[in-house]
Amino acid sequence: IENGGVVIVTDTFDWVTSTGGPLIVENDALFVVNSSFTIPLGATLEVQDATFEIGDNFTNNGTFTPNTSTVIFTDESTLGGSGFGFYNLTIDAGAVVTLDSDITVHNNFVNNGTLTGASHKVTFTSGIAAVTGSGTNNFHDLSIQAGAVVDLSGVEPVGIAVSGTLLIDGVLNCGGANAIKVTGVWLNNNGPGGFLENTSVVEFGGITPTLPNVAETFHDFTISSLQDTVALADYTVSGTWRSDTSSFRPDSFTVTFSGPVFNPSQIEGPATTTFNDVIIDNGSNATLSLSSGDTIRVGTLTVSNLGRQTLAMQANSVLEVLTALTINGGLRTAGL
Prior knowledge:
Layout: E1 6-9, E2 23-25, E3 30-33, E4 37-39, E5 44-47, E6 51-54, E7 58-60, E8 63-65, E9 70-73, E10 77-81, E11 84-86, E12 88-91, E13 96-99, E14 103-105, E15 109-111, E16 114-116, E17 121-124, E18 127-132, E19 136-139, E20 141-144, E21 148-154, E22 160-162, E23 165-168, E24 171-173, E25 179-182, E26 185-188, E27 195-196, E28 201-204, E29 216-218, E30 220-223, E31 229-230, E32 235-237, E33 240-243, E34 248-249, E35 254-257, E36 265-268, E37 273-280, E38 287-290, E39 295-303, E40 310-313, E41 318-327, E42 330-333
Parallel strand pairs: 1-3, 2-5, 3-6, 4-7, 5-8, 6-9, 7-10, 9-12, 10-13, 11-14, 12-15, 13-16, 14-17, 15-18, 16-19, 17-20, 18-21, 19-22, 20-23, 21-24, 22-25, 23-26, 24-27, 25-28, 28-30, 29-32, 30-33, 31-34, 32-35, 33-36, 35-37, 36-38, 37-39, 38-40, 39-41, 40-42
């Protein structure tokens, strides 16, 4: 398909042989296939700086070379075969894409429909990849390679769900008030700089998710898992800690609440959370507020003396201290 050309296949496209050279979609061309599309064994589809739209299943039994193309899925599609590497990947509104093979995305991902990862992996490989759109992102395994920055600011407040492993070797930048739900494993090999929380909500749900393996800072943090969910490092929460279930197990680690006095950290939810060590500190004016009716249980609780750190207890809130309560800053109570 020559430079700037347009080919639209409204019926069936059958690529039955791998003989001859590759099928090339040249720069600025548009190739639209409204049926299923299979690259045969030994054949090559090369899409240059062009657009390829497909309205059915896409199977790669040969070679797919994306260059700087945009591939758009416009209807219900299953991605199968030996896997795909995309440059720009788009799922239109109303389209449903199900993975039957692993895929990689080298640049941007726009989803206004539905992505279902099934049992397969999506890998972002390098550079800054913007994840945008109002669709549903149900990943199984989501991998962010070293050197890649995945920016979720364009999906707020829809966010993403990961049922397998969230692997952060690069950077996951929330950008805003996104929702991230993990029912599998959170594995951050890039350390504290690998996750930039902004004002996001991170929920650990399902049966027994695996919490971060390194010290991590969250804005809002929710526990809704059904069985024991064990801390593997120290965590910092600047917003709200919500417990929908009592499954959090602190082991020997510390949770620090760092919300400022004008927007304090909160502990909410219908379930009682048991912490090991709790520290209220952000270096100046951290405040932890216990809402009315909430109960927390701590081994030790320390209100730092750096600046104006404060524990604020609302009426009918309950604090159970098993070992030590140290108030170097302030304590405010109401209706006790």
